[in-house]
Amino acid sequence: MLRNVFNPELCGKRILLLIVFAIMIFSISCSSSVTTEPDVENLKLMFSPAEQTVPANTEADYVIQVENADNLFAFSAEIVFDNSVAELVQDAVVIGGFWNTDLLELSIVEDDRLSITISLQQTSNEDGIDGNGDLFTLSIEGITIGESDLTFENLQMIDENGYTVPNFDEIEIISGKLIVE
After folding, report:
1. Measured between alpha carbons, how far is 95 from 127 in angstroms, rounded to an integer?
2. Are residues 29 and 59 in the same domain?
3. Distance of alpha carbon 162 from alpha carbon 156, whole angstroms
4. Order of strands across the sheet with 58-72?
5. 12 is in which domain, residue-wise?
6. CB count, 10 Å around CB of 83?
7. DSSP per residue over the chain, as a string?
């Protein structure tokens, strides 16, 4: 009876079977780690051009562009700049072609920042917008020799359900710079 349980021939076959199973499991785990998921394009927000040089008392226009937006329904941000070097011009914001017709817009100008909100209207029955495009154009005037970074603060990009848009937590932001000579 003891011989049947500890039969060397059966033990060898069991070990060989265990080795084969271990190799199969290892192969499956390695092959699944090699499998790549589809490449998702990152959400991107940028000043275009990223840098401009202008003489004093001259306007510079920056187009605020979005790339790879998914279900964008509303945009809100403060654009901050050095008010000893630059100031916003009258009617500093022009809505870009990315949005369709029924929009709500709000701009609040302070000495060193522009607070802007652009949103589709709920009554338009429009879904959020996907893709790439111009959100708005910002006009700023260089008033004295120097440099000013243009950056986003308190940025929000919201979908039609009131949540942040997909990939917002991995957004790539390209700030602007104004050089006044």
Report:
1. 18
2. no
3. 10
4. 86-95, 129-142, 58-72, 44-48, 172-174
5. 2-34
6. 14
7. -HHHHT-HHHHHHHHHHHHHHHHHHHHHHHHHHH-----PPPPEEEEESSEEEE-TTEEEEEEEEEEEEEEE-EEEEEEE--TTTEEEEEEEEEE-TTS-S-EEEEEEEETTEEEEEEEE-GGGTPPPEEEEEEEEEEEEEE-SSEEEEEEEEEEEEE-TTSSBPTTGGG-EEE-EEEEE-
Tokens representing residue 110 in the block: 């302070």
Handedness of CA 6, 7, 12, 18 (dihedral sign): negative
**64 and 6, same domain (yes or no):** no
Residues 109 and 171 placed together within one structural domain of the fold? yes
Q: Give Dmax (Cα) for the chain.
A: 103
Instruction: Work out the percent of the chain whose per-residue pLDDT is above 70.
Output: 73
Tokens at residue 66, please? 């979005």
Block residue for tokens 């009617």: 91
Over residues 16-72, the pLDDT tens digits come to 444 544 454 444 444 444 444 445 589 999 999 999 999 999 999 999 999 999 999
Query: How far apart are alpha carbons 14 and 17 in whole angstroms?
Result: 5
d(CA 96, CA 118): 10
Of the candidates 118, 69, 127, 71, the residue with the CA atom closest to the CA atom of residue 95? 118
